Structure prediction request, 531 residues.
Amino acid sequence: MSYFSDIYKGIKTLLTGMSVTGKYFLTSRKGAITQQYPDNRDTLKMFDRFRGEVIMPHNEENQHRCTGCQKCEIACPNGTIEIIWDRGIDEQTGKKKKKIDKFVYHLSMCTMCGLCIDVCPTDAIEWGQNFENSVYDRTALTRVLNEPGSKLMPGVED
Amino acid sequence: METNTIETNFKSEEYFINMGPQHPATHGVLRLLLTIDGEIIKKVEPDLGYIHRSIEKMCERDSYQQIVHLTDRMDYLSSNINNEAVCLAVENALELEVPDRVKVIRTIIGELTRISSHCLWWGVMGMDVGALTTYFYGFRDRELINDIFEETCGARLTMNYNVPGGLMFDIHPNFIKRVKDFIVHFKTKLPEYDRLLTGNVIFHKRTKGVGILTKEDAISFGASGPVGRASGYSCDVRKHHPYSALDKVTFNEALKTEGDTFARYQVRIQEMWESLSIIEQLIDNIPEGEYRVATNAVIKLPKGEYYQKVETARGELGVYIISKGTKNPYRLKFRSPGFSNLSLLNHIAVGGKIGDLVATMATLDLVIPDIDR
Ligand code: SF4
Ligand code: SF4
Prediction:
């Protein structure tokens, strides 16, 4: 007797499960969360806080906000940031002042922890949204974040 | 009669096989050395070290702010809870009181992390016993939580959202709405999980009475989390040593007494309901206030020893810091739940079949980087 009731129970639970999958089979288009990447590249928008890579924004006059204080370099857990700095003459005061020569960022080592951006006193660096970083040569992932010939924005002090 | 003939004609012999390090059922680079006799398991020997990154040693080099992001890489499915553990330990050592807002947000994010981890586990559990569909459903619901995290923290897996003293930045304006939407959505999906898998007769046959762990053994092997609770061992850190805002909410500790694979499954399903209820209680009254209190740029813990434990999705995570008063810890030890839970695998798998080992391992819910660190 239990043989037949087992068969009955088995079929019943299978049908219960299949009612769930069957429902999705019929309404599969509704509520699909799959992103059609890379076909949707043009419309894909990441969240504003998305951590893609560290960037240094410049204004129209090719000026950035980095004073070369090296706080980010110290905060970085794995030496991703290297700041090569120099002393230049401050145009306003005529005194010697620290300035960055190169802000080197090794994207291949970055863990996207955000500590550098968190400590920067002048908000010179921020998150960029780009995440398509596949390259054939690893050295292409080492970037100099300050544009050539760029200067410190006037009035930015740390 | 028949068995006798087989025994005399074919001498049975024990032999070794490797399961892993690259095996789909070990969910990571874990190598199991199986001694088997036919299909019966005689011994399971886990061989660790394939993904060892010496995180504890790295912690001795790093400042206390930097340690937090390393814990993302241990149990990556509970990264927010791991972060919280280190931050709580540092805050306790500094005797720093964080604002209520931080506590509530940390608890909500922690419970969301638990749900997302259990969703992934549920999908993978089904897949391990041969039901591929669950995998897609589990990941579908986890995706919504990942979106919540991505909007607020900027990352989907390795969040690093907690800092000693609070949170790195405030929650996103959409956070509350998204979490509420998720609760509504997930409440319709959890019963589907039950209909699809929990009641399924094949699933019962694969899991009931398999891999039984008694309460005594659970305690002596140091089992924690759902594995311990399925054996009737009340070990929820959230209940016994509440941290953050967990003392303000009411929830039931999911307990079962059978101790088999099916009981561990049920405990996790029930935990998802409890986590939902915790989030519901908190989401409407996130207190106003600061999201971070300032700490010194260089954090130096006073000389001494500090211990903080939290309940991750897998069990009790302990952070033990010995400080000599400098800016780095002298020694930092993680007591990870996965390691203790793996240690009892041999005990519960011996005598069973290879197929049952896969089902048993699925409900231990091992995350290998958590074990190897
Ligand atoms: S995000 Fe972290 S790892 Fe990357 S550069 Fe900043 S501090 Fe370094
Ligand atoms: S990016 Fe910010 S923290 Fe880093 S050197 Fe420049 S100003 Fe200092």
Q: What stands out?
A: DSSP finds three helices and seven strands in chain A.
